[in-house]
Amino acid sequence: MKKILITGCKGQLGIELIRQLKEMEYKLIETDVHNLDITNPVAVRELLEAEKPDVIINSAAYTNVDGCETDLENAFKVNAVGPQNLAAEAYKIGSKLIQVSTDYVFDGTGNVPKREYHTVNPQSVYGESKLLGENLMKEINPRHFIVRTAWLYGEGNNFVRTMLRLAKEKDELSVVNDQIGSPTSTKDLAKCIINLMETDCYGTYHATCEGSCSWFEFAKKIFELKGIKIKVNPITTEELNRPAKRPKYSVLDNFMLKLIGLNSFRSWEEALTEYLND
Ligand SMILES: NC(=O)c1ccc[n+]([C@@H]2O[C@H](COP(=O)([O-])OP(=O)(O)OC[C@H]3O[C@@H](n4cnc5c(N)ncnc54)[C@H](OP(=O)(O)O)[C@@H]3O)[C@@H](O)[C@H]2O)c1
After folding, report:
1. Sequential DSSP letters for 177-238
2. Closest approach atom of ligand 1 to CA 15
3. 150 alpha carbon to ligand 1 midpoint, in Å?
4. Which positions are annotated as active-site residues?
5. Phi, psi at 152, each rounded to 5°
6. All domains of the chain, ordered by start, with CATH?
7. pLDDT tier, 172 (very low <50, low <70, confident <90, very high otherwise)
8. pLDDT-based confidence at residue 85 (cuts at 50, 70, 90)
9. Mean pLDDT across the stretch 235-264?
10. Per residue in 174-200, pLDDT tens?
11. How far does residue 231's CA lie from ligand 1's centre (Å)?
């Protein structure tokens, strides 16, 4: 039976990966920062040498995009040194390694969905730290899959939950209307990762739900599907004035997944409808 080690198990993606993998014929090693801090090379080496997993899925990350701007050292430790530690040990024991990355490695210019071969140019500490993590993993362990996703929601804190909570507290909301992306369900992403890890098609993949919208349109759809009547005002990124710069147009094209016949992502509206009905 194949052994899969998952990091960041208590995070949104980690929870869904465990849920889906438990239904299958795998032996799971579930870790999060309490039992495997990926920034600690000794802890990573000891656990990987003892367990020798066939596959490692790194869903651990420092995901607070604004927090990364002021906590630069930790951002780079978790998002770059963590993957470096995992890659070094994975290489020694011959494991496949899956690194989850982000649309924030791009600068968000243009209006054409980004493919895997397009030039990266991160605009935030979060994006830079995730890009360094990608590069270290590529340099160290050839058996890698880099899976770039975006606007993720699942079990835990995310935009959908925030909108539903705010709708209970306020009469009207202001939501950014000039950042475009693809809301992506952890269900679709976990399924994609599990399919990919069974192949030897190593490389970089874009992995988001199909279609795109602004955060404002995303919020309106959430309220429409839940039958919530609330006034939503479109605002600009400048008006919101967050510490980290966000890409304006960060739609990804699942180009490589389509080429190898593994693009199983639903439209963002379909995935969202199921999420809100669960
Ligand atoms: N969320 C998004 O919208 C989004 C968009 C694009 C890409 N991604 C990428 O998708 C992946 C999954 O994201 P997510 O939303 O599931 O993240 P998440 O919910 O923030 O989960 C990340 C998990 O990693 C843990 N962690 C933090 N530092 C760690 C360390 N040093 N060692 C081990 N575990 C550590 C966190 O624990 P604590 O909570 O205790 O810190 C948390 O359980 C990440 O690689 C992220 O960069 C996410």
Report:
1. -S-EE--EEHHHHHHHHHHHHTS---EEEE---BS-EEHHHHHHHHHHHHT---EEEEE-HH
2. 16
3. 13
4. 126
5. -80, 140
6. 2-158+182-210+250-265 (3.40.50.720)
7. very high
8. very high
9. 96
10. 999 999 999 999 999 999 999 999 999
11. 32
